[in-house]
Amino acid sequence: MRAAVAAVLAAGLLVTAGCGRSAAPETAGSSEHAAQRHLFVVVGGDKVTGPDLVEARTGETVQIVVTSDVADELHVHGYDRTAELVAGRPSTLTLTAGIPGVFEVEVHENGLLLTRLRVRR
Ligand SMILES: [Cu+2]
């Protein structure tokens, strides 16, 4: 179990490390708003990395990147978007913030409230 946790954490850190390097070329010359990326790591049913609140303006692109130690399903309420979580690998859910409000983002099988998405005009 300890080794599995370490592997998941390492995967999460790799994502974090890769983020800064890839950000500039990915967003250069794109539409008015750059995609904002938020990284989460879930181990043993608990969030060990990631913000409690994700804030966006309508029209922005939001990426929620989750690395879980077990297979699960990510669900963004309100937008009703889901993404399959593969054990030990980062999964990315990309959405365009079009609906203002506060929405819960859950990891379904273990019932974890991962974060909240707040969208403002
Ligand atoms: Cu849900």
Account of the protein in words:
The structure is a single chain. This protein is α+β, with helices and mostly antiparallel strands and 121 residues long. The chain has one domain (2-120): Cupredoxins -  blue copper proteins (Immunoglobulin-like). Helices cover 21% and strands 48% of the residues. The protein has 1 helix and 9 strands; from the N terminus they run H-E-E-E-E-E-E-E-E-E. The strands form 2 sheets. Strands 3-9-8-5-6 form a 5-stranded mixed sheet, with no helix packed on it. Strands 2-1-4-7 form a 4-stranded mixed sheet, covered by helices on one side. Strand 5 (72-76) and strand 6 form a beta hairpin. The chain is globular and about 35 Å long. The termini are far apart. Mean pLDDT is 83; it is low at 12-31. The structure holds copper (II) ion (CU). Residues 75, 77, 106, 108 line the site of copper (II) ion (CU).
Short description:
By secondary structure, the chain is an alpha+beta fold.
* Termini separation: 44 Å
CATH topology: Immunoglobulin-like
Number of domains: 1
Our Rg estimate from Cα atoms comes to: 14 Å
Got a strand count?
A: 9
> What percent of the residues sit in helical stretches (DSSP H or I)?
10-25%
Major sheet size, sense and barrel closure = 5 strands, mixed
Q: What small-molecule ligands were found?
A: copper (II) ion
- As laid out across the biggest beta sheet, the strand order is 3-9-8-5-6
Low-confidence stretches: 12-31
Q: What are the secondary-structure elements, in order, as H or E?
A: HEEEEEEEEE
Strand content: over 45%
Instruction: Name the average pLDDT.
Output: 83
Helix- and strand-based class?
alpha+beta
InterPro entries: Cupredoxin
Protein name: EfeO-type cupredoxin-like domain-containing protein
Keywords: Signal
Signal peptide: 1-17
